[in-house]
Specification:
CATH superfamily of one domain: Reverse transcriptase/Diguanylate cyclase domain
Protein name: DNA polymerase IV
Strand order of the largest sheet: 5-6-1-7-8
CATH architecture of one domain: 2-Layer Sandwich
Cofactor: Mg(2+)
Distance between the termini: 65 Å
Structural class: alpha+beta
Strand content: 15-25%
Number of helices: 16
Main location: cytoplasm
Number of strands: 23
InterPro entries: DNA/RNA_pol_sf (IPR043502), DNA_pol_Y-fam_lit_finger_sf (IPR036775), DNA_pol_Y-fam_little_finger (IPR017961), DNA_polymerase-Y (IPR050116), DNApol_IV (IPR022880), IMS_HHH_1 (IPR053848), Rev_trsase/Diguanyl_cyclase (IPR043128), UmuC (IPR001126)
EC number: 2.7.7.7
């Protein structure tokens, strides 16, 4: 192990949720949960605001909704996350040729190999600059750990969260690790932790005192030796720049258990085709076909078959997966299916014995283009639907011909609710449309940070895209209050709109002022409902705050948004006409 803390571990803070908050001004400072929204969905990432309520990664989405019913629940946008990840990895590669990515938001860097750090002070300076560069380039924050080994650097970054930097000086490792839980060490999960606890071992110090022989007796030779070395802060693993993929796989979890054996077989065939598409996309082939089945009782079965040679033929993979399925009992129902290929190679062996005997070569069905905001529903084979129904994913980007760029806040019952705002605008207006509105289309995400400096008055970009109404919804509160700013400051008893220069105005935000208009339609920013081109339009919730759940059709079409009068609420406003200027908000008597 080296004698200087020149191994850096970077872990972005609540990456998916933070990216969504950066892209959506109305969600900044609010609880955001990203993951699968179906009945069996799982939380991928929860913002720190959501974690206060006990929501965490890998939690069932249904449980998260019970803990934080008012959080914003969004479907992941991996296209955006990959783009931001590439920006971050580019910064890391500028520090050293040895960068080992672990996921989209996590990586090790060998600073010594890059010649940018050789002792504790130089490593600390690199870490400080890296965090600043990440914030400048992406608008997000990351936590940095610095130590003499990969294990310690990762532990240091966990200690640094959120948005911090921790450096472990060589020689202090044992003292730092000693009082920590054994679960801190990599490879110690719930089962191993419980096993050690029953043996009276709960801390890393107790683990080291137990001795290597005792750990081997408790956990086996391989695990016991490795765990004892980690307890002594020993880790000789190098940072590896390129880690080859070991397998390619796809899997689906179903909202309702599948009992029909025929449908199970069809799903396996479909997964096999998708797996081959990924395989070919990576320019790979593989020898071992793997089938994964999770049954109704959560028991998981894995079956595999090794071919004579590597293949990327969809017919071969389909037939192998079908043979594997024949050996699995699915009588009670199936909740998850997966197909994978391992034993990867970058070539295909033309071996007749490895290939299935098919009458004609079959090619993989062309994959549907990856949509950002809408998905065309699947129809039963053989039926040609006259018009494909459009489904809109919560959180995904859309553009309206009249109102510009926005994101889907919710959909259902033939309606889709969209909030019109951009990463550099103020919290925007909410409008509801028919799901088949021809003026609404899915689009790619906007960059979180402008790629070039904007000219003076560029704050009007939001107004140019979404009309003069953007930037005025919910603009209440005193000067200097900024509920959606990165500092998360929420002053007073009512939140202001996200005015980036720190000043709020009763006549609209910078976007509206730059557009030369202060018109505020009746009901905007106060949870009111109006009518836009014959389609209902809902406000952003009480006081103009961002609603964290999909907007619903109000019971009443009055200016109160169907919620009744709001008595005694600080910051409440009524819409009054202003000669020559349409409608402008009026402060309640309770506010100066």
């Amino acid at each position: 192990m080296r004698n200087a803390p020149t191994i850096l571990h970077l872990d972005m803070d609540a990456f998916y949720a933070s990216a969504e908050q950066a892209a959506k001004p109305s969600l900044r400072g609010k609880a955001v949960v990203v993951g699968g929204l179906g009945p069996r969905g799982v939380v991928a990432t929860a913002s720190y605001e959501a974690r206060v309520f006990g929501v965490h990664s890998a939690m069932p989405m249904a449980q998260a909704r019970r803990l934080a019913p008012n959080a914003a629940y969004l479907v992941p946008r991996f296209g955006l996350y990959r783009e931001v990840s590439e920006q971050v990895m580019g910064l890391l590669r500028g520090l050293s040729p040895l960068v080992e990515p672990l996921s989209l938001d996590e990586a090790f860097v060998d600073l010594e190999a890059g010649g940018v750090a050789w002792d504790a002070e130089s490593a600390r300076l690199v870490g400080v600059k890296l965090r600043a560069d990440i914030r400048t380039v992406t608008g997000l924050t990351g936590s940095v750990g610095l130590a003499a080994s990969k294990m310690l650097a990762k532990i240091a970054s966990e200690e640094a969260k959120p948005d911090g930097l921790v450096l472990i000086e060589p020689g202090t490792e044992r003292a730092m690790l000693g009082p920590m839980s054994v679960r801190t060490l990599p490879g110690v999960g719930p089962a191993t932790g419980d096993h050690l606890r029953r043996a009276g071992i709960t801390t890393v110090e107790e683990l080291a005192e137990a001795g290597e022989d005792e750990l081997v007796r408790l956990l086996g030779k391989a695990h016991g030796h490795a765990l004892y070395a980690m307890a002594l802060a020993r880790d000789e693993r190098p940072v590896v720049a390129e880690r080859e993929a070991k397998s390619v796989s796809v899997e689906d979890t179903y909202d309702v258990d599948i009992h029909d054996r025929t449908r199970v077989g069809m799903e396996v065939q479909r997964l096999a085709d998708r797996c081959v598409q990924r395989l070919r996309g990576a320019g790979l082939s593989g020898r071992t076909i793997v089938l994964k089945v999770r049954r109704y009782d959560f028991s998981t079965l894995t079956r595999s078959e090794t071919l004579r040679g590597p293949t990327d033929d969809p017919a071969v993979v389909r037939e192998a997966a079908a043979r594997l399925l024949d050996s699995v009992d699915t009588t009670g129902g199936v909740r998850l299916l997966g197909v994978g290929v391992s034993g990867l190679a970058d070539y295909t062996q033309e071996d007749l014995f490895a290939q299935a005997h098919v009458g004609a070569a079959e090619s993989v069905a062309q994959e549907q283009p990856e949509t950002v905001g809408a998905v065309v529903s699947d129809e039963p084979a053989g039926e040609e639907p006259a018009v494909a129904e459009r489904h809109w994913r919560a959180g995904h980007d859309v553009r309206h011909a009249e109102y510009g760029h926005g994101w889907v806040q919710g959909s259902g019952l033939g309606r889709v609710t969209v909030r019109f705002e951009t990463p550099d605008s103020e919290p925007g207006r909410v409008r509801t449309f028919r799901t088949d509105d021809p003026n609404l289309e899915p689009v790619d995400p906007l960059p979180l940070v402008a790629r070039r400096p904007e000219a003076a008055g560029a704050g009007a970009s939001g107004a140019e895209e979404t009309g003069p109404e953007v930037g005025v919804a919910g603009s209440s509160g005193g000067a200097g209050e900024c509920s959606a700013g990165r500092e998360g400051s929420e002053g007073g008893t009512e939140e202001s709109s996200a005015v980036r220069d720190g000043a709020s105005s009763g006549t609209g935000g910078p976007a509206a002022r730059a557009a030369g208009s202060v018109a505020v339609p009746a009901g905007s920013g106060v949870g009111g409902a109006g009518v836009a081109d014959g389609v209902d339009s809902e406000g952003a919730g009480p006081g103009g705050q961002a609603s964290s759940v999909p907007a619903r059709r109000p019971k009443s079409w009055s200016g109160s948004g169907g919620r009744g009068p709001r008595r005694g609420r600080s910051g409440g406003r009524a819409a009054i006409p202003v000669p020559g200027k349409g409608v402008a908000p009026r402060r309640s008597r309770g506010r100066p």
